[in-house]
Amino acid sequence: MPSKSPRDSRQAARLLEPGPVVLVTAQFRSQPNVMTAAWVIPLSLDPPRVGVAIHPSRFTHELVTRGELFVLNVPTLELIDAVHRCGIVSGREVDKFLQAGLHPVDALAVDVPVIEQCAAHIECGLVERLTLGDHDLFVGEVLAVSADDELFTDRWQISDDSPLIHHVALDRYAGLSRPYTARPEREGGEED
């Protein structure tokens, strides 16, 4: 068995990554912004709810708090440079859509732009904001969902060249490769 050593408790988040990278779009009045986030989590199926953790110093935090709407846009590896750019510059100082070459278009259900080049969009209305430490968890009720028909049916179509982005640390990202299917030991297994 490989050797294991104790780690700083702050490394817990890194152990749970790589997670799906999203581009969070938010808007208040006529001021839109986009931000890279990897701390995203499904929270409930009924009603459908998701969460995204955002640091209070971020401009997107302010826009989601004031506008009470946000969109989780799922980018592909083709957008890796834009994804990284949106994580290192502030929307208070620059137009990140323009600087990253992203095209904001109208959403299906909310008054927040979605990013045209992204593979999927989850449009949310803010239900709750929880302060859980140095980040706030924004809980959104899912109001509309859209996804690329080739990449997503009832699940992501993972292949050897899957285009989804996962965050590893800082400026390090990864794509998924090779899908695996577990063989159930018995019929009629229960879900967790």
UniProtKB/TrEMBL annotation:
Organism: Thermorudis peleae
Residue stretches making up the Flavin reductase like domain: 14-156
Gene3D superfamilies: Electron Transport, Fmn-binding Protein, Chain A
Cofactor: FMN
Record key words, sorted: Flavoprotein
Pfam families: Flavin_Reduct
Protein family per UniProt: Belongs to the flavoredoxin family.
GO molecular function: FMN binding; oxidoreductase activity, acting on the CH-NH group of donors, NAD or NADP as acceptor
UniProt-recorded name of the protein: Flavin reductase family protein
